[in-house]
Amino acid sequence: MNLTQSLQLIVPEEILSIGGLVLLLAAAWLGDKASRAISIAAVVLMAAAAAFTVPVLAGGAMGADTWAFLGQMRVDAFAAFAKLLIYISGAACLMIAPRFFNQWNAMRAEYPVLLLFAVLGTGIMVSAGDLMTLYIGLEMNSLAAYVLAAFLRVDSRSEEAGLKYFVLGALASGILLYGMSLVYGFTGTTSFDGIRAALGEGGSLSTGALFGVIFVLAGLAFKISAVPFHMWTPDVYEGAPTPVTTFFSTAPKVAAIALTMRVALEAFGGQSDAWRQVVVFASLASIAVGALGAIGQDNIKRLLAYSSINNVGFILVGLAVATQEGASAMLVYLVIYVAMSIGSFVGVLMLRDAEGNQIESIAQMAGLSRTRPLLAWCLLIMMLSLAGIPPLFGFWGKLVVFRAAVDAGMLALATLAIVGSVVSAYYYLMVCKTMFFDEPADKVQGRNDWAHWSLLIGSTLFVSPLGFLLTGWLGDLADKASAALFLAA
């Protein structure tokens, strides 16, 4: 494939790259007074990128025709599925940011530019077909994310979150690079297809190659906040500005999970027995730590951080299966998880006191159903959906993942995951009990704008029983996307 054809395949990345550079210059020339216009332009750029991505997913694109730059990037249906989730998440996080930062007089023109480049990095991650492309995309996203975490310079918690994220992120990058060097040393290539061919199908791996595989997966586990590489998540989620936390819990997480799927199922797909035990451990440990760690939390953002770890554990059940059905179930779960995360964090953003200050204490949400009934009912649906309680749509996400594990003969894994799901329901129900049965604290009094209400109500309707009307359509798209990962199988 020549250069022209490769450039035609990566039009969404070109739109974001060129548009991001233009907006960077605009931010430098026009200053912070143009932050709203730059934010709107960034949303338009993501919408344009999405418009070029939809046909790729709808057509189920896969195979050599989707490879750009000699296979270093793969613009297939799987990448398109993840990119659409990323663009939706990025646009939502831009919509909710101005109200939050204006309260601190901290809205800067650089914010939408940083988020746009973070989205660009995540798009490169999910299209990676080579270890070099993987690292370029991952670091482009990470470098922007470190700054975003510390963006609220007047808040010491934000500065602390940025520093912790940077230090631990650098450690994870070192682990990942070491694993990549081992894989390259023992396979002689950085191409995913070349790695798969060199490792072979089944059989035993050499000790060095096995260490390389484990170190690569460990580095990626940090990005998806899977146990035991989850330690940064509660502190960063609590300290980072809430719009940034919303972004961290959606777009980069989708990209990291999609990248982990591509690496595990494409590059290491022929040796699934070698890494399955690691993924099973990470899955069950994440479910357990996410469930038990959240029980004692009194800050709603920290609770949602442990919820994120818990949900990653359930998603990894599908990866442990290492089948197309498991991969499809993971994608279905990701869509529902993104909707639940956006709805939950937007609901948290709407918890304001009379002066407009953010309320994060669960105790101050007491009696919310009597003072702000619509907000309380929306948050109730979000919490119960995160718990996987039927008939809400969050139940469907867990069901398809558990079903994939049972169909693959991994009944013990599915059973333990179900038990973990029951345990995790406790802290979601605790929040619901506080909102509906405790005496009103009457702390939530602030007003909210149309952007917050539209995102919250839209997310609530999606995860409500109405979401089950989309199961057939969503399943078909997930099947098309997951099929692109198994061409070499």
Summarize the amount of helix as a percent range. Answer: over 70%
* Total number of beta strands: 2
Mean pLDDT: 89
Uncertain residue segments: none
What is the secondary structure topology, with strand pairs?
Layout (H helix, E strand, L loop, with lengths): L2 H7 L1 H20 L4 H24 L8 E2 L4 E2 L2 H27 L6 H17 L4 H19 L6 H32 L4 H8 L7 H17 L9 H7 L2 H7 L2 H17 L4 H24 L4 H22 L2 H26 L18 H4 L1 H14 L6 H15 L3 H27 L12 H14 L7 H13 L6
Antiparallel strand pairs: 1-2
Descriptive overview:
- The chain is globular.
- The chain is built from 21 helices and 2 strands.
- α4 runs antiparallel to α11 (242-248), α15 runs antiparallel to α17 (373-386) and α15 (324-349) runs antiparallel to α20.
- The longest helix has 32 residues, at 156-187.
- It has helices spanning 3-9, 11-30, 35-58, 77-103, 110-126, 131-149, 156-187, 192-199, 207-223, 233-239, 242-248, 251-267, 272-295, 300-321, 324-349, 368-371, 373-386, 393-407, 411-437, 450-463, 471-483; strands at residues 67-68, 73-74.
- The chain has 489 residues and is an all-alpha fold.
- Strands 1-2 form a two-stranded antiparallel ribbon.
Concise structural overview:
With 489 residues, the protein is an all-alpha fold.
Short key terms for the protein model shown above:
mainly alpha; two-stranded antiparallel sheet; 2 strands; NADH-Q_OxRdtase_suN/2; quinone; cell membrane
